[in-house]
Write a structure and sequence with these properties.
25% of the residues lie in helices and 55% in strands. It is of the alpha+beta class.
């Protein structure tokens, strides 16, 4: 298995943990200083894990759409993919179609995500 395939497998397992809404397992895929960057700015790991643990944030589905891009950058691995997901926020159902970029680093012998950034898909995804 290539290093890129290892990280793809970790990313897929993390998606499974999210769909299972298992806050401790979700947290195990993140570095301690992991951050999510979205339209409202940066959100720390503690907030996301707290929302999952409380049931405020629930994931029902998550799937890669098309082909992902996984490349090495020094000691890190960068993953870029289009993902479709569904769930609920404060009891209100949602669906999302997003581009996600993640930075994975090797810590304590495991690949963990240090940063996740999401951007909603707009218009024709085949055009820049």
């Amino acid at each position: 298995m290539t290093l890129e395939d290892e990280v793809r497998a970790v990313s897929a397992a993390w998606d499974e943990a999210l769909i299972g809404n298992d806050a401790p397992r979700v947290a195990s895929f993140m570095t301690d200083d992991w951050v999510y960057v979205g339209p409202n700015g940066a959100t720390p790991k503690a907030d996301i894990i707290g929302w999952i643990a409380s049931g405020r944030l629930i994931h029902h589905s998550m799937a890669v759409v098309g082909t992902d891009r996984v490349v090495r950058a020094g000691g890190a691995v960068l993953v870029t993919a289009r993902k479709a997901s569904s769930g609920a926020w404060d009891g209100v159902p949602y669906t999302a179609d997003e581009w996600i970029s993640e930075v994975y680093v090797r810590t304590d012998g495991c690949w963990r995500c240090a940063l996740s950034q999401k951007t909603g898909v707009a218009g024709d995804p085949s055009r820049p």
